[in-house]
């Protein structure tokens, strides 16, 4: 693939496919309360879990999650004891939850959770099998476990380009038992900007500009025995998504504040050299998440801002986009009730897709044939 051909400064959207649309499956619709979903994972075509917190008009919140075992036709609300940041399932039954105070495990698909240990500043959790797991943390740290998450030890990441106290690792992923990465940003010029929603960080919501950030990845090819830091692929913006794709490149999503010309952009980056190419950006779309699809295509979750500012605390219309570049980009019809400030995508394979909002909604991508009797 010629990645320079993906450098697109202007993107025109063509009409959407008529038989494809995003159907509302779950809506937490209670007076003066909002279910703010923070993380969504689907371990199969029938099992998904979304976690977050229910926030009231006085900014009080209580942790909670919802689980489906029938592809989203029915959802069961689950009470959680601590504020969740990331949820991961190895299969339909075995999963782990990273919270503000520790790591939890479920052996029944997310209905019940047992706390394994106390850890703070966790951003992400990932397991390669039932015993071997990893967590990414604020402060430039990564921990590993070889007993299912009961005990954790610091991982030696080798030489990092910035002091650890300036680094926040937001993602840890492994393609297999050997190949993995941690990715995040360094904040050498100012205070770290949290990726968490405003109800978790109200002071952040009152600040207008975020400090410059430098995004980079650290990779391993020997199961975590040794790690190598790549060159920065961005010197500006908040890194919302990082995922390795074909040819050694990584799919990246950066979001910028109101002072930037573009509110967000999706790109392909070389984690070793730092070279990057833009795939998609639009001034009237604030991109919140992206997934790579088969054949070099992408699924994009975005919001149409309600005004000229892209940082207003007012939900905007949800916009879902599929394509691979140029005139192939198509907006997929979305339920008219779907509005949000933040979105998170999840998939199983290349056929089943869901999106959760910070306004208490979960939608699934369906076709007309799937909804007809």
Please tell me about this protein's structure.
- The chain is an all-beta fold.
- It has a single domain, classed as 7 Propeller (Methylamine Dehydrogenase, Chain H), CATH 2.130.10.
- The protein is built from 2 helices and 29 strands.
- The chain has helices at about 200-205, 370; strands spanning about 20-25, 35-40, 50-55, 60-70, 75-80, 85-90, 95-100, 100-105, 115-120, 120-125, 135, 140-145, 155, 165-175, 180-185, 215-220, 230, 240-245, 250-255, 265-270, 275-280, 285-290, 300-305, 315-325, 330, 340, 345-350, 350-355, 360-365.
- The strands form 7 sheets. Strands 22, 23, 24, 25 and 26 form a 5-stranded antiparallel beta sheet that branches. A 4-stranded antiparallel beta sheet has the order 1-29-28-27.
- The model is unreliable at about 1-15 and about 200-210 (pLDDT under 50).
Class computed from helices, strands and strand pairing: mainly beta
What is the number of E strands?
29
Query: What is the CATH domain class?
Result: Mainly Beta
Q: What characterizes the major β-sheet?
A: 5 strands, antiparallel
Percentage of residues in strands: over 45%
CATH topology: Methylamine Dehydrogenase, Chain H
Gyration radius, rounded: 19 Å
| Full CATH superfamily name | YVTN repeat-like/Quinoprotein amine dehydrogenase
Distance from first to last alpha carbon: 42 Å
| CATH level-two architecture | 7 Propeller
Sequence-ordered SSE layout with sheet pairings:
Layout: E1 20-27, E2 33-42, E3 48-56, E4 61-68, E5 76-79, E6 84-89, E7 95-99, E8 102-106, E9 114-118, E10 122-127, E11 133-137, E12 141-145, E13 153-154, E14 167-174, E15 180-186, H1 202-205, E16 214-220, E17 228-229, E18 238-244, E19 250-255, E20 264-269, E21 276-280, E22 286-292, E23 298-304, E24 316-323, E25 330-332, E26 339-340, E27 343-348, E28 352-357, E29 361-367, H2 368-371
Antiparallel strand pairs: 1-29, 2-3, 3-4, 4-5, 6-7, 7-8, 8-9, 10-11, 11-12, 12-13, 14-15, 15-16, 16-17, 18-19, 19-20, 20-21, 22-23, 23-24, 24-25, 24-26, 27-28, 28-29
